[in-house]
Every structure is written in structure tokens, then in C-alpha cells.
Request: fold
Amino acid sequence: MTNSRLTYREAVREALREALARDKRVFLMGEDVNRYGGAYACSLGLPAEFGDERVRDAPLSESAFVGAGIGAALGGMRPIVEIMTINFSLLALDQIVNSAATLRHMSGGQFSVPIVIRMATGAGRQLAAQHSHSLEGWYGHIPGIRVLAPATVADARRMLWPALEDPDPVIIMEHATLYNDEDELPADGDMSVDITKAATRRQGSDVTVIAHSACVKKALNAAEMLVGEGIDCEVIDLRILRPLDDETIIASVRKTHRAVVVDEAWRSGSLAAEISSRITEQAFYDLDAPVERVCGAEVPIPYPKHLEQAALPQPQSIAAAVRKAMRR
Amino acid sequence: MSDLDRLSLHVPEPAVRPGGEPDFSNVKIPKAGSVPRPEVDVAPEEIRDLAYSIIRVLNRDGEAVGPWAGLLSDDELLAGLRHMMTLRAFDARMLMAQRQGKTSFYMQHLGEEAVSCAFRKALNKGDMNFPTYRQAGLLIADGYPMVEMMNQIFSNESDPLRGRQLPIMYSSKEHGFFTISGNLATQYVQAVGWAMASAIKRDTKIAAAWIGDGSTAESDFHSALVFASTYKAPVILNIVNNQWAISTFQGIARGGSGTFAARGLGFGIPALRVDGNDYLAVYAVAKWAAERARRNLGPTLIEYVTYRVGAHSTSDDPSAYRPKTESEAWPLGDPVLRLKKHLILRGAWSEERHAQAEAEILDEVIQAQKQAEGHGTLHAGGKPSVRDIFEGVYAEMPPHIRRQRQKAGY
Reply:
């Protein structure tokens, strides 16, 4: 088997290409996805292969293209809707929360909405307060949808197809700082991935570090920093933010007896709070130390690099939290 | 100092408020038969005046006149009359049931029966409506069982939606009736998306979107028109202008626009205004729009000019904001009485047969109600199981919901 080296961006593009080729019900719709290739160039080149009807620029209205995508999904298509960045998804929240997420239930099972909504998320590209949100936890709050956060090139390549096969609405959060990441992937062979399971990215015995999206890399960096101090971290990549895979988290915490939750989002009411609470509920007597959280500062994300980075979890702050959990 | 006056804000006000004499002299009603019927492939810019007129077929004497007349047979019209009478009787019984505490909430159609009943007959099997809460005539006219509607209203053990929706928020895929949304206008753009899917699939089915005068102010209305216009989706965009959005008169949402139909003109969408209390006119215009959609000519916007005779819902008392006798002054009359008069004039109907039909229909509604009440009402008898609330959140139940269900004891 040959390997190919590709970026996260190329992995997303390959996944889109596969989906468009495999299922003629699939089409991509969003702002500037056609000639421009999408804000992060994920669909660059695809219109030439699949035509303007299947890689379609939409009028600039998030509620409308998500709403029309929901309608198309109801009408038997498998739309992939791209929202430029997560802040713009707020304009489509009513369609996502009040329609896509509820229709199966409200209609007594008559209508399902097999839509995939992709959006770029997160801070770190100096895009300031209005384009740097981490609202994954908000979406993770909503019953009726599945929320995926590919943190690796492999997951970016593999998660789209099972998302399209899911009969329910799926949101895929692509962290904006990951698009240039590179990795080796098998050029062919098994592309399947279980979109109900978290992934253990590093085995360890002393402390469990739970992260998702861009923070997985930071957690892995922290783990490497701590090797020299004799601390062996296990790093879990949540991958699926709804429904959360408690089993993997709790099994790891039962093994290590310590947990640090890393979340780029604002601390109060965050996904990190939910995970911390679940650990306390399900593994309290296994814990040797209180659960630590490393989250984004609760401020609008600033613009210049040094200010922006100061507001985000960093390998250093993660390592500090691990030391605290280890009482060092 | 400038010699200009200081600024002042304009707030539109209805012509008359409670205590005043109802006055609809500002509603210009063209003569029946006076508005031309263009070919369906007409260029939108050639029929801009249709957005400012009112297409009418039945005149004061009950005759069907003009170019939009002559589409329906005696039998079809008799069936239409029966649908409207059934909807009216159904509403009356369910209002009573609400007062008796058999449900918490109800919304009636009084005065607007022609809009949904006639529209349904212009669609085919497999077409999809995205309705609001005042189009139950779409279901009645398509033969959806009244007992199913009542089971939903009573939220009983046979509720097809299993207690997961407000009363009257029906849902029937089989009858081309998409789940009603309590959030208004969201479905306008979903209908456009459904129609786009039909075109992408090279199918022949069309969609119909529904909205009221008040909720045309929602941004989803405007962006749906952009999408329909850009992609020329096979969709009929219906606006039911019943003059009142709860207590807000239509002028608040209409603003400086001449009519609601005229909103379509800026999008290059053919826009027609029709007498919503005229069964024949509603059918004729809906059929025209449906043919345009089916021939891949794109969307049509239709404004139905009608009047909400009853309260908005059982939670509303219109005497706080409009004269009590306003509905009697409404110049377009009553849709049931107008069709009845026309059928009598055609020699297809009589006062006696009408009275007999009223009695039969009431009996049918009462029988359906008895059957539904046998399955329970909101506070008595059979109920959906608590187990049901955990079902259908996802196609497959995830472990955490199963745990929550088990914890709840089901």
C-alpha cells in the first residue's frame, strides 16, 4: 500500500470529492465555494470535475442556504452546506436548532433531515472577536444533531462519508488553524471511521488529558514536555462532541485517576464543564485529584498575535494544569 | 437654526379601532372578471399590475365571470364546498372542545376556508406543502382523516405525533403536508430548498410555501425569495393576508409597500393578488402558478386577500384591537356562502341540500370526535407513553438517551 502526504485542507477536499463521486444526491452549497473554492480553499478545483450545479455558490444568507439545505435533504438529496466560519452560523441557528434538530421527533418520525453542515471554527488566525469563536459546546447542547470535530488529517479525510450516511443532521467543525497541517495517509484502502467513538491519541498511565479540535495537538505537545518530568499523559481526542463518548473518557480516568480537560471555548458553561461534571458523576471515587480545566479566557478574542494567544489554552498552560493534578 | 421641522416617527395605524365604525373603503376591490389572465410563460415585468389588483371570479350575484372562470365542474365545486363546510364544522367543534378542556389550544380558519381548500386541489399527489397553522384545509381537502387530526389535538394515545407537538401542528408526509413550524417563515426557505431538490433530481414535483402577512417581515421570507429567484425553483410562494397578525394590523408588516404581492416584483418573481374568499379564483390562480412551476418557469408569488374572522387563537381576544363588527363589513364576503350561492345559481345546489349537508357534516365531525375521544383527551383517558419522548430524537437511540430513559423508569 502506498502512502500519500496531504494537508488537512486537501483531506477535506478529497472527502468532498469522494462524496460527490459516490453519491449523485450529494451537492455542496455555500458562500464562494465555486470559483473561489471556499474561504479555506477546501472545494478548490471541484467545480471543474462536478459542475456548477453540484458545487454551488449560494446567495449570502446563512439562514437561507441552511434552510434550503434542510428542504433539499427533506426532498431526498444529501446536501453538504458550508458555512464560512462558525460566527456566521449564528444567523442559521433557528434553522439548525428549531428545524433540523427537531423535525424527526416533532413529525413522529415521518421526516428526517440528512444534511451535513461544515463550518470553520476557532481562534488563532488573528481574525479577532467576530471570527474566532469556539461555539462547539453550544451545538453540543442540542439534542437531535451529531457534532464532529476532526482534529487530525485522517479524521478530516474520513469523517464526511459516515456523516453523509447518517440519517440525522451532522455538523462538522473544522478548526481554522488545522487546514495547513500535514500527515501521511494510506492512498487507498479502508477509509472507515467510527463516528460514535473518541480516539486515544497517546497512551499514558499518570493523567488523562481530554481535548478536541486544535487543542489535541496542544495537549500532545504538553505531554511531550512532561515526559522529561516523569509524567506520562494519556491524551484523548473527543472527536465526537455530541453525543459524547463517556465510555472512553471514564475508562481512561479509572486507569489514570487524574483528569485535565482542555477546551478553547469560554470556561463558564463550556463543554469542558460538562465533561468535568460527567467525570465527577461517574468516576468520583476513582479520582486522586480534582478535575482541572484549561479553557479560553472569557473575553472577546483580540486581534494581535500576543493578545490572541494569551487568551487561548497553550501547551504551557496545559502542562501547568497537569502538574497541578499531579500535585507537583 | 434650520427652517426644517424636527423629525417625527411614522407609526402606521389601522383605519379604525374598537368603538369605531368598521371601514374598508381603503381596500380597492376590482370587479369580478376584470383582471386579465396572462399565459403562464409571460415575462414577469409584463404583469406587474397583477400585484396591485385582485383577481376575482365570483361576482355579487354569484356568477363566475371573466378569463379566470370555467375551470371546475359542478362535482368539483360541490366537493370544494363540502371541504370548506367540513373545515368550518371541525373548527367549531374543536373550539368547543378547547373550552371544555379537552385540549389547551386551538386555532380556527373562519373566513379563510377557501384559501387552503381550493389550493390543495391545484396540486398533485407527491407535491409538498410547507404550511403555517391556518391551512388545515390542505389536509381536509386531501382526505386526511379528521380523527387523526383530533388525536393530535387531544394529544391522546393515538396521536400520530405522540405528544411531541402543539395541538394543530399537524404533520403528514403522505398527504404532502410538512410538519408545521411554530417559528414563522422558517419553512418558506425550506420549501424553496425542497423544490430545488426536485429540480436537481429532474423530478416533476413542486413545492408550496406558506406565510402570513405579519411574518413576511421575517428575514427568512426575503432570503427565500432571493433563493427562489436565483435558482428559479419550482415553488409557489403563498402569502395569506388575513389583515391581522394577532393584534398587529397588516400595515405594520407591509410598511410603505403597496401590497404584499408587490414584494415579489423586486425579485423578478411574477406576483398575483387574488380574492382569498373566492374558491374559484383561488383555484384558478393556484393552478396557473402550479403550471408555471411544472413547466420549469420558476416561482410565483400569490397574495390571498382575506380576513381572519375569528380570534388568532384561543389565547386571543380581538375586541382589544379591532371593532367587533369588522368582519361583517369585510367587502369580500364569506367563502362558503359565496360558493353556495354560485352552485345554487348553476342549478347544482339548493338551500335544502345545503342544510342537509350541514347536518351530515356535523354528524361526521361528531362521529370522528367520539372516536378520537375514545383514545383520550388532553386530561383524560389514553395518553402517549413517557417512553415515546426518548424515541425519534435520532434515527438510532444513542446510549446517553437510553440511560436517561431507563433512569426515568421506561
Notes: Chain A has a mean pLDDT of 96. Chain A touches chain B through 45 residues (CB under 8 Å). DSSP finds 13 helices and 14 strands in chain A. Residues 3-186 of chain A form a domain with the Rossmann fold fold (CATH 3.40.50.970).
